[in-house]
Protein backbone atom coordinates (compact mmCIF):
# COMPACT_ATOMS: atom_id res chain seq x y z
CA UNK A 1 0.00 0.00 0.00
CA UNK A 2 1.23 3.51 -0.81
CA UNK A 3 2.97 5.01 2.26
CA UNK A 4 1.20 8.37 1.96
CA UNK A 5 -2.14 6.58 1.92
CA UNK A 6 -1.25 4.50 4.97
CA UNK A 7 -0.09 7.63 6.79
CA UNK A 8 -3.35 9.39 5.90
CA UNK A 9 -5.38 6.51 7.34
CA UNK A 10 -3.37 6.64 10.54
CA UNK A 11 -3.91 10.37 10.85
CA UNK A 12 -7.62 9.87 10.32
CA UNK A 13 -7.69 7.17 13.01
CA UNK A 14 -6.16 9.68 15.42
CA UNK A 15 -8.79 12.21 14.39
CA UNK A 16 -11.61 9.70 14.85
CA UNK A 17 -10.39 8.79 18.34
CA UNK A 18 -11.44 12.27 19.46
CA UNK A 19 -15.05 11.16 18.92
CA UNK A 20 -15.47 9.70 22.40
CA UNK A 21 -18.62 8.85 24.36
CA UNK A 22 -19.51 12.55 24.65
CA UNK A 23 -20.06 12.75 20.88
CA UNK A 24 -23.45 11.98 19.35
CA UNK A 25 -23.52 8.60 17.55
CA UNK A 26 -24.14 10.51 14.30
CA UNK A 27 -21.97 13.50 15.19
CA UNK A 28 -18.46 12.20 14.56
CA UNK A 29 -16.03 12.52 11.68
CA UNK A 30 -16.72 10.52 8.51
CA UNK A 31 -14.27 8.86 6.13
CA UNK A 32 -15.47 7.12 2.97
CA UNK A 33 -12.26 5.80 1.43
CA UNK A 34 -11.51 3.56 -1.54
CA UNK A 35 -9.02 1.06 -0.08
CA UNK A 36 -6.29 2.73 -2.16
CA UNK A 37 -5.46 6.28 -3.28
CA UNK A 38 -8.34 7.69 -5.32
CA UNK A 39 -8.05 9.98 -8.32
CA UNK A 40 -9.72 12.66 -6.18
CA UNK A 41 -10.19 13.15 -2.46
CA UNK A 42 -12.93 15.54 -1.35
CA UNK A 43 -12.99 17.28 2.02
CA UNK A 44 -16.42 18.51 3.15
CA UNK A 45 -16.48 21.02 6.02
CA UNK A 46 -19.75 21.45 7.90
CA UNK A 47 -21.39 24.61 9.22
CA UNK A 48 -21.51 26.27 12.63
CA UNK A 49 -23.37 24.17 15.27
CA UNK A 50 -23.84 21.36 12.74
CA UNK A 51 -21.79 18.15 12.48
CA UNK A 52 -20.36 15.96 9.69
CA UNK A 53 -23.75 14.34 9.09
CA UNK A 54 -24.91 17.64 7.62
CA UNK A 55 -22.78 16.66 4.61
CA UNK A 56 -23.45 12.90 4.85
CA UNK A 57 -25.80 12.55 1.87
CA UNK A 58 -23.52 14.57 -0.40
CA UNK A 59 -20.51 12.59 0.82
CA UNK A 60 -22.19 9.30 -0.09
CA UNK A 61 -23.01 10.55 -3.60
CA UNK A 62 -19.39 11.58 -4.18
CA UNK A 63 -18.08 8.28 -2.82
CA UNK A 64 -20.43 6.31 -5.06
CA UNK A 65 -18.97 8.25 -8.02
CA UNK A 66 -15.44 7.15 -7.14
CA UNK A 67 -14.11 9.86 -4.82
CA UNK A 68 -12.57 9.39 -1.39
CA UNK A 69 -14.46 11.67 1.00
CA UNK A 70 -13.44 13.07 4.39
CA UNK A 71 -15.90 14.99 6.58
CA UNK A 72 -14.11 16.04 9.78
CA UNK A 73 -15.90 17.09 12.93
CA UNK A 74 -14.91 20.66 13.69
CA UNK A 75 -13.83 21.54 17.27
CA UNK A 76 -16.66 21.95 19.77
CA UNK A 77 -19.25 20.33 17.50
CA UNK A 78 -21.17 17.07 17.42
CA UNK A 79 -21.75 16.58 21.15
CA UNK A 80 -24.40 14.17 22.42
CA UNK A 81 -25.62 16.95 24.71
CA UNK A 82 -27.21 19.33 22.23
CA UNK A 83 -27.25 22.12 24.81
CA UNK A 84 -23.57 21.78 25.63
CA UNK A 85 -21.85 25.10 26.32
CA UNK A 86 -18.50 23.92 24.91
CA UNK A 87 -18.80 25.81 21.62
CA UNK A 88 -18.43 29.06 23.56
CA UNK A 89 -14.74 28.28 24.08
CA UNK A 90 -13.81 27.49 20.45
CA UNK A 91 -11.37 29.93 18.91
CA UNK A 92 -10.66 30.88 15.31
CA UNK A 93 -7.21 29.30 15.29
CA UNK A 94 -8.68 25.93 16.34
CA UNK A 95 -11.12 25.97 13.41
CA UNK A 96 -8.36 26.93 10.99
CA UNK A 97 -6.05 24.22 12.34
CA UNK A 98 -8.81 21.62 11.95
CA UNK A 99 -9.28 22.62 8.30
CA UNK A 100 -5.54 22.38 7.61
CA UNK A 101 -5.44 18.97 9.31
CA UNK A 102 -8.25 17.70 7.08
CA UNK A 103 -6.42 18.92 3.97
CA UNK A 104 -3.24 17.14 5.08
CA UNK A 105 -5.14 13.86 5.49
CA UNK A 106 -6.89 14.27 2.14
CA UNK A 107 -3.60 14.71 0.31
CA UNK A 108 -2.77 11.13 1.18
CA UNK A 109 -6.22 9.82 0.17
CA UNK A 110 -6.27 11.08 -3.41
CA UNK A 111 -4.08 12.32 -6.23
CA UNK A 112 -6.05 15.57 -6.50
CA UNK A 113 -7.87 17.29 -3.64
CA UNK A 114 -11.08 19.31 -3.59
CA UNK A 115 -11.94 21.15 -0.38
CA UNK A 116 -15.57 22.22 -0.07
CA UNK A 117 -17.51 23.64 2.83
CA UNK A 118 -20.86 25.07 3.76
CA UNK A 119 -21.35 28.33 5.68
CA UNK A 120 -18.60 28.27 8.36
CA UNK A 121 -17.11 25.37 6.40
CA UNK A 122 -17.28 27.48 3.23
CA UNK A 123 -15.36 30.24 5.00
CA UNK A 124 -12.71 27.68 6.04
CA UNK A 125 -12.52 26.33 2.47
CA UNK A 126 -11.89 29.89 1.23
CA UNK A 127 -9.24 30.39 3.93
CA UNK A 128 -7.46 27.23 2.81
CA UNK A 129 -7.63 28.36 -0.82
CA UNK A 130 -5.88 31.59 0.14
CA UNK A 131 -3.08 29.85 2.05
CA UNK A 132 -2.64 26.39 0.48
CA UNK A 133 -2.32 24.99 -3.03
CA UNK A 134 -4.71 22.21 -4.04
CA UNK A 135 -6.85 21.43 -7.07
CA UNK A 136 -10.21 23.03 -6.30
CA UNK A 137 -11.87 24.98 -3.47
CA UNK A 138 -15.65 25.21 -3.31
CA UNK A 139 -17.15 27.64 -0.78
CA UNK A 140 -20.92 27.11 -0.51
CA UNK A 141 -22.83 29.97 1.13
CA UNK A 142 -19.57 31.01 2.84
CA UNK A 143 -19.93 32.84 6.15
CA UNK A 144 -18.07 35.98 5.09
CA UNK A 145 -20.60 38.37 6.59
CA UNK A 146 -24.15 38.63 7.92
CA UNK A 147 -26.97 39.04 5.42
CA UNK A 148 -28.63 42.05 7.09
CA UNK A 149 -25.41 43.93 7.78
CA UNK A 150 -23.36 45.89 5.27
CA UNK A 151 -20.15 43.97 4.78
CA UNK A 152 -17.99 46.98 5.68
CA UNK A 153 -19.54 46.95 9.14
CA UNK A 154 -18.39 43.39 9.86
CA UNK A 155 -15.23 44.42 11.79
CA UNK A 156 -17.36 46.65 14.04
CA UNK A 157 -19.77 43.76 14.68
CA UNK A 158 -16.85 41.49 15.58
CA UNK A 159 -15.51 44.05 18.07
CA UNK A 160 -18.96 44.54 19.60
CA UNK A 161 -19.66 40.84 20.01
CA UNK A 162 -16.25 40.27 21.61
CA UNK A 163 -16.81 43.14 24.06
CA UNK A 164 -20.23 41.90 25.16
CA UNK A 165 -20.80 38.86 27.41
CA UNK A 166 -20.92 35.55 25.53
CA UNK A 167 -24.63 34.77 25.12
CA UNK A 168 -26.37 31.72 23.66
CA UNK A 169 -29.13 32.47 21.15
CA UNK A 170 -31.65 30.07 19.62
CA UNK A 171 -31.53 29.49 15.88
CA UNK A 172 -35.34 29.23 16.04
CA UNK A 173 -36.83 31.10 19.04
CA UNK A 174 -40.11 29.20 18.61
CA UNK A 175 -38.82 25.63 18.31
CA UNK A 176 -35.84 26.28 20.59
CA UNK A 177 -34.41 22.91 21.76
CA UNK A 178 -36.90 21.03 19.55
CA UNK A 179 -35.10 22.21 16.41
CA UNK A 180 -33.74 19.25 14.46
CA UNK A 181 -31.63 17.43 13.36
CA UNK A 182 -30.55 15.83 16.61
CA UNK A 183 -26.86 15.74 15.60
CA UNK A 184 -26.71 19.55 15.50
CA UNK A 185 -27.10 22.25 18.14
CA UNK A 186 -30.29 24.35 18.35
CA UNK A 187 -28.44 27.42 19.67
CA UNK A 188 -25.16 29.26 19.13
CA UNK A 189 -22.86 31.43 21.27
CA UNK A 190 -22.33 35.00 20.11
CA UNK A 191 -18.57 34.74 20.59
CA UNK A 192 -18.48 31.86 18.08
CA UNK A 193 -20.03 34.22 15.54
CA UNK A 194 -17.31 36.74 16.39
CA UNK A 195 -14.58 34.11 15.94
CA UNK A 196 -15.92 33.10 12.52
CA UNK A 197 -16.36 36.66 11.34
CA UNK A 198 -12.87 37.42 12.61
CA UNK A 199 -11.57 34.79 10.19
CA UNK A 200 -13.61 36.39 7.41
CA UNK A 201 -12.21 39.84 8.19
CA UNK A 202 -8.64 38.53 8.23
CA UNK A 203 -9.19 36.68 4.96
CA UNK A 204 -10.48 39.82 3.24
CA UNK A 205 -7.47 41.78 4.47
CA UNK A 206 -5.03 39.19 3.13
CA UNK A 207 -6.89 38.91 -0.19
CA UNK A 208 -6.54 42.65 -0.73
CA UNK A 209 -2.80 42.25 -1.14
CA UNK A 210 -2.14 38.61 -2.03
CA UNK A 211 -3.43 36.17 -4.64
CA UNK A 212 -4.76 32.81 -3.39
CA UNK A 213 -2.42 29.84 -3.68
CA UNK A 214 -5.23 27.64 -5.01
CA UNK A 215 -5.93 28.61 -8.60
CA UNK A 216 -9.37 27.05 -9.10
CA UNK A 217 -12.00 28.40 -6.72
CA UNK A 218 -15.80 28.30 -6.91
CA UNK A 219 -17.95 30.47 -4.66
CA UNK A 220 -21.56 29.29 -4.57
CA UNK A 221 -24.29 31.60 -3.28
CA UNK A 222 -28.00 30.97 -2.70
CA UNK A 223 -30.54 33.28 -4.34
CA UNK A 224 -32.81 32.82 -1.31
CA UNK A 225 -30.08 33.33 1.29
CA UNK A 226 -31.29 34.37 4.75
CA UNK A 227 -28.15 34.21 6.90
CA UNK A 228 -24.86 35.01 5.15
CA UNK A 229 -23.88 37.99 3.01
CA UNK A 230 -23.75 37.11 -0.70
CA UNK A 231 -22.18 40.47 -1.55
CA UNK A 232 -19.19 39.59 0.63
CA UNK A 233 -18.62 36.50 -1.52
CA UNK A 234 -18.68 38.62 -4.65
CA UNK A 235 -16.25 41.08 -3.05
CA UNK A 236 -13.83 38.28 -2.20
CA UNK A 237 -13.96 36.97 -5.76
CA UNK A 238 -13.25 40.49 -7.05
CA UNK A 239 -10.23 40.82 -4.75
CA UNK A 240 -8.84 37.53 -5.99
CA UNK A 241 -9.47 38.48 -9.62
CA UNK A 242 -7.66 41.78 -9.06
CA UNK A 243 -4.53 39.84 -8.10
CA UNK A 244 -4.65 37.64 -11.17
CA UNK A 245 -6.17 34.53 -9.62
CA UNK A 246 -6.42 32.03 -12.44
CA UNK A 247 -9.91 30.54 -12.21
CA UNK A 248 -12.25 32.08 -9.66
CA UNK A 249 -15.87 31.44 -10.48
CA UNK A 250 -19.11 32.69 -8.95
CA UNK A 251 -21.96 30.19 -9.12
CA UNK A 252 -25.49 30.49 -7.79
CA UNK A 253 -28.31 28.30 -6.56
CA UNK A 254 -31.23 29.89 -8.43
CA UNK A 255 -34.91 29.99 -7.57
CA UNK A 256 -34.60 28.92 -3.94
CA UNK A 257 -37.10 30.17 -1.34
CA UNK A 258 -35.79 31.95 1.78
CA UNK A 259 -33.28 29.48 3.19
CA UNK A 260 -29.76 28.92 4.44
CA UNK A 261 -29.04 25.25 5.17
CA UNK A 262 -29.80 23.66 1.81
CA UNK A 263 -27.22 20.90 2.36
CA UNK A 264 -28.77 18.69 5.04
CA UNK A 265 -31.78 16.67 3.81
CA UNK A 266 -33.11 16.50 7.38
CA UNK A 267 -33.53 20.26 7.33
CA UNK A 268 -35.47 20.61 4.07
CA UNK A 269 -35.28 17.49 1.93
CA UNK A 270 -36.61 19.04 -1.27
CA UNK A 271 -34.19 21.95 -1.17
CA UNK A 272 -31.26 19.69 -0.35
CA UNK A 273 -32.03 17.45 -3.33
CA UNK A 274 -32.12 20.48 -5.63
CA UNK A 275 -28.92 21.88 -4.19
CA UNK A 276 -27.11 18.53 -4.47
CA UNK A 277 -27.99 18.31 -8.17
CA UNK A 278 -26.20 21.61 -8.72
CA UNK A 279 -23.30 20.97 -6.34
CA UNK A 280 -22.44 17.42 -7.35
CA UNK A 281 -21.01 18.26 -10.81
CA UNK A 282 -19.06 21.19 -9.31
CA UNK A 283 -17.53 18.98 -6.63
CA UNK A 284 -16.97 15.94 -8.82
CA UNK A 285 -15.19 17.94 -11.47
CA UNK A 286 -17.69 17.98 -14.32
CA UNK A 287 -18.04 21.82 -14.17
Structure description:
With about 290 residues, the protein is an alpha/beta fold. The protein has one domain (about 5-285): Rossmann fold (3-Layer(aba) Sandwich), CATH 3.40.50.1820. Helix content is about 40%, strand content about 15%. The strands form two sheets. It has a seven-stranded mixed β-sheet, with helices on both faces. Strands 6-7 form a two-stranded antiparallel sheet. β4, α4 (about 120-130) and β5 form a beta-alpha-beta unit. α3 crosses α4, α4 packs parallel to α6 and α5 packs antiparallel against α6.
- Determine the fraction of residues in helical runs and give it as a percent range: 25-40%
Looking at the structure, the CATH topology is Rossmann fold
Low-confidence stretches: none
Strand content is 15-25%
Q: Look at the helices and sheets and give the structural class.
A: alpha/beta
Superfamily (CATH H level) name? Alpha/Beta hydrolase fold, catalytic domain
Major sheet characteristics: 7 strands, mixed
Task: Give the overall average pLDDT.
Answer: 95
Extended strand count: 9
CATH class: Alpha Beta
- Cα-atom Rg, whole angstroms? 18 Å
How many domains, as an integer?
Answer: 1
Q: Could you state the order of secondary-structure elements as H and E?
A: HEEHEHEHEHEEHEHEH
Second CATH tier, the architecture: 3-Layer(aba) Sandwich
Amino acid sequence: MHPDYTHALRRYEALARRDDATIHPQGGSILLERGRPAARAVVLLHGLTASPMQCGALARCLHAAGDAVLVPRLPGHGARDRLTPQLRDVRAHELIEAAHEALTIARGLGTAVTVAGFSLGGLLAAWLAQHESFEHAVAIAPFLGVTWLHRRATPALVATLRALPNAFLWWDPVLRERLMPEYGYPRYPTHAIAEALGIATSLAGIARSTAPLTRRITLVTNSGETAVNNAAARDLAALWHAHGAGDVRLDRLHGFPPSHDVIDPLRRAGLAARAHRVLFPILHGAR
